[in-house]
What does this fold into?
Amino acid sequence: MTELAALVEGAGRRGLAVDDVVATRAHVGLRTNSRWFAVAADDVVEVIALPTVTRVPAAPAHVLGVALVRSRLVSLVDLEQLLAGQPTPRSERGRIAVVRADGLELGLVAMATRGLLALPDDGATEVAPAERPPWIAREVGHDGLRLAVLDVAALAALVARGARP
Amino acid sequence: MTAEVAVVCFALGDERFAVASADVVELDRANALAEPLAALCGLPAGTGAARTLTVAAGGWLRTFAVEAPVEVRTVGQAQAVPPPTGWRPPLVVGFARLDERWVQLLDSLALVALGRTPAEPSSPVQESP
It folds into this structure.
């Protein structure tokens, strides 16, 4: 038996310890500009190509406007604008992740999306630093990316209040 | 329940808007004294011909510069859509689909109060003698 085969056989005999099992939850990854965000898949209604946007009067900078999504109007929110005051660049690969929490629905603008990502569940991850906005629940490393996990309910409540960053 | 409402439609840049015709007291050609509604709303102005729209609501009058095409239409319930749940635009009571375009239905009272504090009202409506 080669050394490598012996190593694998030994690993198989040892089995997987309970401590090695990390609970995960499916998320959808959203890229804005230089940032990646993650939204729990349970909060995502659908991901669609960037639709035609109707600009609305007296909107805060992070609200791009509204768009028709399956016969209902959805407000489109730019997370990059909300966090850094810069718009997310538009591209042909642009997507909208429609999310819902507490009866409020938002479309999150993304340059690209990635999913589904199995991210460690709440307890096993780094809590967001104090300077993070309340709508970012925590940060997670995954596949070389640093993802800010959204608290969709907190984000929806902030946007619904018309609060400016 | 109201089945149909007459509205005055106008443009601001690429977007279309409407206000209840019952609240519109005057439509006119360009007037240098009219306030540019696009700028007040934070929207880019377009290249359409300038028109003025005078709106009366809550006992106050205000004259805005808007853009052509300006036309009177009716909006029925079948064409009307409520605003989104996630963020309710402060000036918009709803949307209507007219000629394959979205028209934003404006709240006349919010319109005459736009950009003003309660202590800074617009012109009071003059009662006819």
